Amino acid sequence: MFSYNKFKFRFQRYAVRNLAAYVSVMFAVGYLLMMFTPKLYNLLVFAPYEVLHGQVWRIITTVFYPPAGGGIFWTVLAIYVYYSMASTLERWWGSFNFNLYFFGSLLVSELGVTVFYLITGLNLPLIPIYMYFSVFMAYAITFPDASFLLFFVIPIKAKYLAIAEAAIYLYNFIMGGTISRIYIFCALIPVAVYFLIAMGGGNGNPIENIKWKLRQQKRRKEWRDQWR
After folding, report:
1. What is the pLDDT of residue 169?
2. Could you give the 3-state DSSP secondary structure of residue 18?
3. What is the pairing mode between strands 154-157 and 147-150?
4. Is the pTM of this model over 0.85?
5. What DSSP element (H or E) covers 203?
6. How far apart are CA 152 and CA 150, in angstroms?
7. Largest CA-CA distance found in the chain, in angstroms, rounded
8. Alpha-carbon span 198 to 207, nearest angstrom
9. Which domain holds residue 30?
């Protein structure tokens, strides 16, 4: 049976340290490229047809897409918020776990877009916004009582924002087009896996964690029953 701990022990030396910082710098560079050299930027976006025909660098360089569009103020703010959450997760989880979560999210999203291309023939680029939002979902699971200032004024806990974001995901999944559903579904796969790990016994095996959770619930029920 697969053991996450053994997998981690074998490959953790390859983890990129301070990945959150590097990714945030890529966001900033990507925003500048979009503003001043859009033709060059278009060579960095993940597009299935181009990747399958040799432009494999797009697998990584699609990360240059910044976490928010619009003016420079909102882009800088979005990069700062992303870095704050991602670097916190990286320190809390360790570099290897954060690397696995980030690159796993990226590859799952790229795989979803590629499968869509192979089935339909539509060569749609990957827009990784939902993938970036999945970092916030993981942050909210890890630190549910952390506070954010909504509209820079109203303090609200991360768990409530996560519930609101999940509702938005669900709405967009139902009302959006096929490609939006693919983006959302692929972005939430790593969140679901992490939720199973975080909410269970923590041994890195989601199936075992579910069993552990069920055993805990059974023990609590038996303990309550014997005192009735």
Report:
1. 83
2. coil
3. antiparallel
4. no
5. none
6. 5
7. 72
8. 12
9. 4-226
CATH number of the domain residue 222 falls in? 1.20.1540
Residue 153: what residue type? V
Ramachandran class of 14: left when φ > 0, alpha when ψ lies in -120 to 50, beta otherwise:
alpha
Q: What is the pLDDT of residues 81-134, one digit of tens each?
A: 889 989 998 998 888 888 888 888 888 889 999 999 999 999 988 888 888 888
* Cα 204 to Cα 222: distance, rounded to the nearest angstrom: 27
Residue whose C-alpha is closest to residue 123's, from 195, 197, 45: 45
More confident residue, 21 or 168: 21
Helix 95-120 / helix 4-11 crossing angle, nearest 10 deg: 100
Tokens coding 61: 């360089």
Which amino acid makes up residue 189? I
Instruction: Report how many domains make up the chain.
Output: 1
What does the block give as tokens for 2? 């697969």
* Euclidean distance between CA atoms 157 and 160, whole angstroms: 6
